[in-house]
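Lab notebook, design round three. We kept the backbone fixed and only want residue identities now. Task for the bench partner: fill in a sequence for the structure below.
Input structure tokens:
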């Protein structure tokens, strides 16, 4: 039961990190210059290519959710 709750929490974190990855990196992937920056004139913000880290965190959280779910099934 505890493993299943932890798996659900990890899955929520994976969704949150996946959303952050999409918003901070994936939408802007074609806009980055040689310095790894992208300026959005509409929102007047600068995006950096370091946003891929959110994707790594999403993958780790998803993997943790799967492992915890499998342990909870035993």
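Proposed sequence:
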């Amino acid at each position: 039961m505890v493993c299943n709750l932890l798996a659900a929490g990890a899955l929520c974190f994976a969704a949150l990190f996946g959303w952050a990855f999409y918003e901070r990196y994936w939408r802007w992937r074609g806009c980055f210059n040689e310095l790894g920056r992208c300026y959005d004139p509409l929102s007047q913000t600068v995006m950096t290519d370091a946003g891929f880290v959110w994707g790594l965190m999403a993958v780790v959280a998803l993997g943790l959710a799967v492992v915890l779910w499998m342990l909870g099934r035993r």
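Keep this in mind before ordering anything: The beta strands are 37-40, 45-48.
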